[in-house]
From TrEMBL:
Keywords: Membrane, Transmembrane, Transmembrane helix. Residues 1-27 are annotated as: Disordered. The keyword Transmembrane helix applies. The keyword Metal-binding does not apply. This is PepSY domain-containing protein. It holds the Pfam family PepSY_TM.
């Protein structure tokens, strides 16, 4: 009846009738939560098992690559700029002279790239090959003194430790398939991290973040260390895993750029014969500097290479800041006349790629950042190794329980 005031007996009767329903709802939620947790646990277990071996490979090969320059010094492959008299210290040879010096070392070769590493601007690297479209693994590189145009030697080649580590890390000597496969493993690794956090949440709420129960059995201690170090490296592992997966798409992104933006810029040259007499490299760089006066040349791609067109130099300019040194802008220069053809900002996907590279390699903050990156790499190896140990010893726990 509307407006009726419930007596004490009435309220108890209503509560008694409602209690089973409320209890059933709580039980259902608890069971659902346990079921969801089991599903997340299965996801974590199998994603971890699928990617662990490959993530260990990437961590073990990536660790020495963090110290790439130091590795070259250790193995005797480093090329250092020689000391010159004060009168020559500020001298600079022309880019054409540098190019001629490199080509003289490899008769019959054509130039592919002239590269200036941010850490060694005095030591440009000239990449040459029998043909402009020769694959990267079949090219030769020559380091030249930018002050005197004197060849100083060849950077580490195919037989070097650094080359082997880099190939294992990038594509496992399997080309594009290897890159895409490792990229897929990176995505699986991210799924393992996220599912691991979800599985860890109940323990976190109950016991506390990062607690290690040292008085428990050895397997429990291993599990706690696995979880605690995993949470410590969480942000770093997500960052490096995501950026690494993005980097494996570099070849596909470059091809998309060639078929889209580059094709638009060079459309007026379609059908014209290849360039036979090239303009000066110095003129091409000078033109690019006029277009992007606040940027620095990163590398010149010669006509016919993947980063240019058959009729153009592509002068790739870079930023001058710590975080912008890998942000590039291509300037297309007519290879016959040295005149500007076009210069555009890169599409968003290449900007994402270029922005992910310093975040993945940790090479934009000097030695302190390298040490930080290496330390978290080692911790990630511990997480992967402890997870593998817990999986391999899972049957031992059941055997001990049966004996007990």
């Amino acid at each position: 009846m509307r407006g009726k005031v419930l007596t004490g007996d009435d309220r108890r009767a209503v509560a008694s009738a409602a209690s089973p329903r409320v209890a059933d709802e709580h039980t259902a939620k608890r069971h659902m939560s346990q079921r969801a947790l089991r599903i997340w646990s299965i996801v974590h277990r199998w994603t971890s098992l699928v990617c662990t071996a490959f993530m260990l490979l990437l961590c073990l090969t990536g660790l020495p690559l963090v110290f790439g320059h130091e590795l070259d010094i250790l193995t005797g492959d480093a090329i250092e700029a020689p000391e010159l008299p004060a009168s020559q210290a500020n001298a600079r040879a022309s880019y054409d002279a540098v190019l001629r010096a490199a080509l003289a070392q490899h008769p019959g070769h054509v130039p592919q790239y002239m590269i200036w590493e941010p850490d060694d601007p005095l030591l440009p690297i000239v990449v040459t090959a029998p043909h402009a479209d020769t694959p990267p693994d079949d090219t030769l590189s020559t380091t030249v003194d930018a002050r005197t145009a004197r060849p100083l030697g060849m950077p580490p080649g195919k037989g070097s430790l650094k080359f082997v580590l880099l190939k294992l890390h990038v594509d496992m000597f399997a080309g594009l398939f290897g890159k895409l496969f490792l990229g897929a493993m990176g995505v699986v690794f991210l799924a393992a991290i996220v599912s691991g956090v979800v599985v860890y949440l109940p323990f976190w709420r109950k016991v506390g973040l990062g607690r290690v129960r040292l008085k428990k059995k050895r397997r429990v201690v291993w599990l706690d260390w696995h979880n605690a170090i995993g949470m410590l490296t969480l942000a770093w592992a997500l960052l490096v895993g995501a950026t690494g997966s993005i980097n494996t798409l570099a070849d596909l992104m470059l091809e998309a750029w060639r078929n889209d933006q580059l094709a638009q810029m060079v459309a007026p040259y379609r059908g014209q014969p290849p360039v036979t007499v090239r303009a000066s490299v110095d003129d091409a760089v000078k033109t690019a500097r006029q277009v992007a006066p606040d940027m620095i040349p990163s590398f010149v791609a010669f006509p016919g290479t993947r980063f240019a067109s058959p009729h153009h130099y592509a002068v790739w300019m870079r930023g001058d800041g710590i975080l912008t040194t890998r942000m590039l802008r291509p300037v297309l220069v007519d290879a016959s006349t040295g005149a500007l053809t076009d210069a555009r900002e890169l599409p968003w996907y290449l900007k994402v790629l270029l922005g992910s590279q310093p975040l993945h390699f940790g090479d934009f903050g000097g030695m302190p950042l390298k040490i930080f990156w290496a330390a978290f790499d080692v911790l990630t190896i511990v997480v992967l190794g402890s997870g593998l140990y817990l999986w391999l010893t899972r049957h031992n726990r059941g055997k001990k329980a049966q004996r007990g």
